[in-house]
Write a sequence for this structure.
């Protein structure tokens, strides 16, 4: 798998979330994603960036434009050193939240992308990787 | 005190030379913005600053001293005007830093004792550095004020509530719906519902590029609040890609009437309020 472009962006404020959305859209466009695919990956990026900020107390996102054979895709890896998630299965249930949101960010993002992987350790932090292919 | 008086005296005696050299070095600097500021204005500012500077050098030690207040106030004035004119921080600070060379020249040519010379040059350079930093900070502050004002203006501008017809309001949303803006949007809409007694409010999200769960939650809360005030909401401007994304996210908008376009939403609103639109034959103007 070839990486065409690879950059890391901080997530420290709500302005950074806007930036993540803009960059994700730009890169999805670069990978010639359709409007629907663009919107899906941008929305998932928005959800996860907000989770990183609100629940992970800030962190960073690595955005990669990747190619695997004829497939082109965008991959995002969100990392924080926050409190971690004690029960992943529960966190991935629709409607479950420890905050004031709708409880659909994590589970909804999973449905918006092709690849989804989450690693979390209590006290250490959380890493979420998503990828959407054209 | 005696030393300061001496410094001030030196500057006063050589006032014309210093002013001439200083203005010249500003006019020759790469940071000069001839298109933004007239030469006469620059000359006038330099002259006024130098006379204030001479007074303050005599009576005050550091720029924190009260004696430097007139100098700082004057710098405040010219920095503000330069920010508005579009000067960069370095262009603004050059005003202060370019004074070093002419002052040093005068000190060097007047004082013969090396110890005295070094001490005076050191005192002068520290002063001017501090004034330069002060100008930089002022510049930054002024820029931040401009940005802050623009943000506030945007907040106001971007949330107009318009009346489409009797009893029908429309709220065209544009851009990112972060919490601060949503609050303003919600307040504006509710306020207008009270003022107009509208029965239906159409929230158009054509201009909102991303609808994630936070945006959806804000929308649902706005709809719920409007309903409590006796007005029904219709959400319009749901494009195909947004519809698909909302479904995948699992957000339930079934409680709310939604339409693809503002025109569709308007037709529904007219029906509900008992109004109707009819087409009549239009007579062609005779050529």
């Amino acid at each position: 798998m070839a990486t065409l472009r690879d950059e890391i962006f901080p997530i420290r404020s709500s302005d950074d979330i806007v930036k993540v959305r803009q960059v994700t859209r730009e890169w999805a466009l670069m990978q010639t994603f359709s409007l629907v695919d663009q919107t899906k990956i941008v929305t998932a990026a928005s959800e996860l960036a907000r989770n990183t900020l609100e629940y992970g107390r800030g962190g960073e996102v690595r955005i990669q434009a990747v190619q695997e054979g004829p497939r082109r895709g965008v991959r995002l890896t969100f990392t924080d050193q926050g409190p971690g998630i004690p029960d992943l299965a529960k966190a991935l249930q629709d409607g479950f939240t420890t905050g004031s949101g709708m409880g659909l960010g994590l589970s909804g993002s999973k449905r918006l992308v092709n690849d989804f992987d989450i690693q979390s350790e209590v006290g250490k932090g959380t890493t979420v990787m998503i990828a959407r292919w054209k | 005190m005696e030393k300061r008086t001496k410094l001030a005296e030196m500057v006063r005696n050589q006032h014309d030379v210093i002013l001439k050299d200083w203005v010249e070095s500003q006019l020759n600097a790469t940071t000069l913005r001839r298109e933004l500021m007239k030469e006469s204005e620059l000359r006038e500012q330099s002259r006024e600053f130098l006379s204030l500077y001479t007074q303050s050098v005599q009576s005050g030690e550091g720029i924190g001293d009260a004696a430097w207040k007139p100098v700082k106030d004057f710098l405040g004035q010219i920095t503000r005007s330069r920010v508005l004119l579009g000067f960069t921080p370095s262009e603004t600070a050059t005003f202060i830093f370019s004074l070093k060379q002419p002052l040093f020249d005068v000190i060097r040519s007047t004082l013969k004792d090396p110890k005295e010379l070094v001490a005076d040059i050191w005192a002068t350079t520290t002063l001017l550095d501090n004034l330069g930093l002060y100008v930089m900070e002022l510049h930054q502050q002024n820029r931040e004020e401009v940005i802050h004002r623009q943000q506030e203006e945007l907040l106001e501008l971007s949330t107009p509530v318009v009346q489409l017809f009797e009893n029908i309001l429309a709220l065209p949303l544009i851009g990112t719906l972060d919490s601060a803006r949503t609050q303003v949007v919600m307040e504006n809409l509710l306020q207008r519902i009270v003022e107009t007694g509208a029965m239906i409010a159409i929230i158009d999200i054509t201009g909102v590029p991303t609808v994630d769960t936070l945006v959806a939650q804000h929308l649902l809360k706005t709809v719920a609040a409007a309903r409590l005030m006796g007005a029904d909401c219709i959400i319009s401007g749901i494009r195909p890609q947004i519809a698909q994304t909302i479904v995948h996210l699992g957000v339930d908008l079934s409680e709310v009437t939604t339409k693809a376009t503002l025109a569709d939403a308007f037709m529904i609103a007219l029906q509900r309020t008992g109004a109707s639109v009819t087409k009549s034959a239009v007579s062609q103007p005779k050529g």
Q: What stands out?
A: The CA atoms of residues 11 and 122 of chain B lie 15 Å apart. The domain at 2-155 of chain B is CATH 1.10.490.10 (Globin-like). Chain B has eleven helices and five strands.
